Amino acid sequence: MSGVGKGVAASSIAKLLQSRGFRVTAIKIDPYMNVDAGTMNPTEHGEVFVLDDGTECDQDMGNYERFLNQDLSGLNYMTAGSIFQSVINKERNLEYQGRCVEVVPHIPLETLEKINRAGEKAKAEIIITEIGGTVGEYQNILFLEAIRMLKVKHPDDVALVLVSFLPLQNADSELKTKPTQYAVKTLNSTGLQPDIILARAGTPLDQKRKEKIAFNCSLQEEDIISAPDVKSIYEVPINFEKDGLSGRILKKLKLRPRKTNLQEWRKLAKTVEESSEPVNIGIVGKYFSTGKFVLADSYISVIEAVKHAAYFFGKKPVIKWLDAEEFIKSPENLKQLSEYDGIIVPGGFGGRGTEGKMAAIGYCRENKIPFFGLCYGMQLAVIEFARSAAGMKKANSTEIDEKTPYPVIDILPEQKKNLEEKKYGATMRLGAYPAELKKGTIAFEAYKSQSISERHRHRYEVNPDYIKQLEDKGLVFSGTSPDGRLMEIAELPRNVHPFFVGAQFHPEFKSRPLSPHPLFREFIRSSIDRKER
Ligand code: GLN
What we know:
Layout: H1 6-19, E1 24-30, H2 42-45, E2 49-50, E3 56-57, H3 60-68, E4 77-79, H4 80-92, H5 103-121, E5 126-131, H6 141-153, E6 161-165, H7 178-188, E7 196-201, H8 207-216, E8 224-228, H9 236-242, H10 245-252, H11 263-274, E9 278-285, E10 289-290, E11 293-294, H12 300-312, E12 316-323, H13 326-329, E13 342-345, H14 354-366, E14 371-374, H15 376-389, E15 396-397, E16 407-411, H16 413-420, E17 429-437, H17 442-447, E18 451-458, E19 460-462, H18 467-472, E20 476-480, E21 487-491, E22 500-503, H19 518-532
Parallel strand pairs: 1-4, 1-5, 6-7, 7-8, 9-12, 9-13, 13-14, 14-22, 15-16
Antiparallel strand pairs: 2-3, 10-11, 16-19, 17-18, 17-20, 20-21, 21-22
The protein binds glutamine.
């Protein structure tokens, strides 16, 4: 089922095999008919992750990149929609040479072709492919069929791992194995038998349960791997290894084990375990609630980037969600912001919550609370500055108010047409773009480099007509596109504010556990300073 941890399981398997010296890549298959994740609402599907090549994809791709410390490409991500689209395109181009094109075999075959291409591009010895969804539903059946075909052709080169959940009715009862047994039966009906079962549960699996699952699912006990809840996802690979997972997989794939090197990863997990001194970060946003639940998944990369930076300083990241709309309901609520060591305003779309976010940004600016704006967060910081410091009352983004007297944030010229023609899918300014940094700024200090490359996902930008006015009032554009046309980073000088920085791009997508993003690192450094002061 969704949320059971398939993404982290796939990433961890990838990490373990990589740590044993194999060249590994990871692929995600999303069963949705959406061609990519760019058109999905984050509260429903989680964060939209962006790759260097501009692919808008599932958040699991972020986990793969972070665990493998690798940049992946669009070939590593597919949805049902994208596979259907390429089959239909091929049919239109007569590439099937007059043959009847059918869902089976053509959809599975197209899937396999793409898996193969991704493997070749990454020069991978092992490809981890995660199939989203639940066994037994219609949505992923064609992808399971693809794996069945692959296994028939290459029986020794395919190992199947089933991630299954074991419920616990109450504290006194036992973990229930029946759902897992039924999942395996259902999987068997597609012609597949798992080689390994990852038993997800609140607690580790006892020997009795292992025996039960193994016996009823036609497996050996060593193939049932305990996957209990852990404090941090970085412990997951280490935990799997306690049950010998990588060795089992290599055995199934008939690959000779190589020497393991999980040193750095173990060190990281130890830091996570041992860091106790908190750094308190508030994230002001709107994509939080679904019914009664808070869905932090919408900002998963932001959370991870904060964690990487906090662990870098040996601190314990404590993140709190602050609903932007609360700051408008009662401005008194703004005072809460002083309790935090630093405030982040992340990316977003549309008008809802923006006045609240700007109120929060203004409060951070005036009270010298470290502030970090990501994409929309940067745009809103520029608007807030225009209104409060540059006398442009009612300044706004044309995304929020088309008739604003001061459109300090405006649509990119090349984007106007897309919206008029209702071309929404994969048409934003997407993926990696270079930027140049100004010497003597926070940005330059952080990156220690003049040229950078960062990932984007937006349609609007700082309006060039207002740059001079904003600069005259003290806002510094410390990063721009190489031609100087687009403002990529805005900041206030250190003598005015300890850390007030906004990035037009999404730095969170490039932060890695063992190498935190430079801007997140400096933001957290300032937050720790504030706390210590
Ligand atoms: N809505 C803004 C834009 O399109 C910001 C997008 C974002 O935060 N990713 O420019």
